[in-house]
Amino acid sequence: MTDAYVALENGEVIEARARSPGRSRGEIVFTTAYTGYEESLTDPSYEEQVLTFSYPLIGNYGVREDRFESDRVHPRAVVARELTTDVADWLETEGVPAVDHLDTRDIVTAIRDGGAMRCGIAAGAGATPQAAREELADCLPMSDHTDIGAQVSVDERTTFNDGGDGPTIALVDCGAKGSIIDSLLDRDAVVELLPYDATVADVEAVAPDVLFISNGPGDPENFEAAGELAEQFAGELPLAGICLGQQVIAGALDGETEKMDFGHRGVNQPVRDLRTDKVVMTTQNHGYTVSEPGALDVTQINVNDDTPEGLESDELNVITRQYHPEANPGPHDTLDFFDDVIEMVRAETTLQS
Predict the structure, then answer these.
(1) 286 given a catalytic annotation
(2) Within this chain, do residues 294 and 255 fall inside the same structural domain, yes or no?
(3) pTM score, whole prediction
(4) For 59, 120, 219, 312, which has the most beta carbons within 10 A of its beta carbon?
(5) Catalytic residue list contains 74
(6) pLDDT in tens, 168-207
């Protein structure tokens, strides 16, 4: 049954089956992960995107809220070869259009050949190819979503583990996954979650031991406030960052970023540490990368394309990672990053004493 259409920027219109009705648009991307669909669908880094699953069956172990990374589904629409009823019903409840019964291999190939592209989707009763094309026509490029931080960030400061014995982490919420907060809480840190547009005064008010910039969606150049914080506190406070956070910190410290052709999204991205030559498997979700590290040293690279996966500076006390070391949905090769962040605080305290 054809009652859904996906219109791609390359001019192609693909027929599909509607599993959750509606019209939507966004940058279409793909993930190679074959598990962790709940984590992916609730990852704020997918804001303003249409998520295509390359694995053919999505939903084979149900939907459990305790696996969610945030309080809602973030992709604007979902595309799969086959969605189970559990996932389709969940997406319909969330008001997120979803389609299946199409060849996702063709979509993945189109993205790999032509790069991530804009798309429009129309699904359900009355859906037409023209409706999908109309959505496509209204779709903005990712870099034009200058207010995207406001869509994924907390509105006001939120404290976790108030009174804990560990260091105080000022976590700038550019779209932070819940498991990043959990990883810090597991180490008894006090986490002060700050809005994406937090000011210098906001950071000073919590007197943190570390300034930590989170993952998030879109172009790092649209997170100017976070970049200003990194520039202001570099050399004064230990700095840490994950994914978008790495890009923002690098940009603030004389580095440069660029949009990738189709990004890294999945749970099997190999990363090599340049100091130890050890290779680990990582979870990733990003469409931008650091092209020039500026004042930072590249310590880890992606085995597939040599893009920077880890940046550090002993002089400025900075440590960042492009991948998601909180490892949800896995693998767990890189959880020690959070130990390294805590160790930065101990080293700074020892130096000052």
Answers:
(1) no
(2) yes
(3) 0.96
(4) 120
(5) no
(6) 999 999 999 999 999 999 999 999 999 999 999 999 999 9
Instruction: State yes or no: pLDDT of 227 exceeds 80.
Output: yes
Q: Is 119 a catalytic residue?
A: no
- Point out the catalytic residue in the list 47, 48, 69, 326: 326
> Out of 243, 264, 286, 312, which one is annotated catalytic?
243
On whether the CB atoms of residues 312 and 269 are closer than 8 A, the answer is no
Beta bridge pairs of residue 117: 28
Overall number of domains in the chain: 2
How far is it, in rounded angstroms, from Cα 266 to Cα 264?
Answer: 7
What end-to-end distance do the CA atoms of the chain give, in Å?
71
- Read off the tokens for 34: 């074959």
Q: In this predicted structure, what is the pLDDT of residue 349?
A: 60
For residue 71, pLDDT beyond 90: yes
The residue with tokens 């599909």 is 16
d(CA 298, CA 47): 28
CATH number of the domain enclosing 84: 3.50.30.20
Report whether 178 contacts 69 (CB < 8 A). yes
Structure confidence at residue 146 as a pLDDT band (50, 70, 90):
very high
Mean pLDDT of the chain: 96
- Structural domain of residue 188, as residue ranges? 148-352
Angle, in degrees to the nearest 10, between helices 244-252 and 224-233: 60
* Strands laid side by side in the 318-321 sheet: 158-160, 190-195, 168-173, 210-213, 239-242, 318-321, 308-313, 297-302, 256-273, 279-292
Model confidence pLDDT, tens digit, residues 252-306: 999 999 999 999 999 999 999 999 999 999 999 999 999 999 999 999 999 999 9
CATH number of the domain enclosing 187: 3.40.50.880
64: phi > 0 → left, psi -120 to 50 → alpha, else beta; which?
Answer: beta
- CA 165 to the chain's CA centroid: 29
